[in-house]
Amino acid sequence: MPHLNVHDYLRSHIRTVPDWPAPGVQFRDITPLLQDPRVFRVLIDAFVHRYMAPELRPDVVAGLDARGFIIGAVVAYELGIGFVPIRKKGKLPFTTVQETYELEYGSATVELHTDAVQPDQRVLLIDDLVATGGTMIAGWHLLRKLGAQVVEGAAIVDLPELGGSQRLRELGLPLHTLVAFDGH
Known about the structure:
Elements: H1 6-11, E1 15-18, E2 26-29, H2 31-35, H3 37-51, E3 60-64, H4 67-79, E4 82-88, E5 96-103, E6 106-113, E7 122-130, H5 134-145, E8 149-158, H6 164-171, E9 175-180
Parallel strand pairs: 3-4, 3-7, 7-8, 8-9
Antiparallel strand pairs: 1-2, 4-6, 5-6
Helix pairs in contact: 3-4
Protein name: Adenine phosphoribosyltransferase
Pfam family, one: Pribosyltran
Pathway: Purine metabolism; AMP biosynthesis via salvage pathway; AMP from adenine: step 1/1
């Protein structure tokens, strides 16, 4: 096998499912990244090595429901820091703050426990994919409501043609992604 850089290696393990969940959609499926232990290690290490740097090192990782839990919890474990879930409305048992955001057809709400982060705590916000950016923006607003400092948003996949990564950067949230896909 020829030597691939991390970007190409990870990209080669992301499955594209045409016309799912609707005709014309090219769904980027990250589950093959998780199924192969070697590939999963490369994925996690790519994030861990970045966030070991003192200027980016978080105090806690916040993962967005649901695939952000998978990546975020393992990254937090490897960094030796805590993990907090940002869940869909109605899934957290304690007192929460919530943020509603717009979807293509309708809206959604995410919640965070009020004691999940402390004021000025450095937080890494992580998800599997950035499409329109709505979920990550909502998570960012929740963390800021509690006074946290979000050091960066991170995701495995960026779909730049949908505008989310640009929206995040324009709002002032630094974003780091490992693989970008255009519409093809």
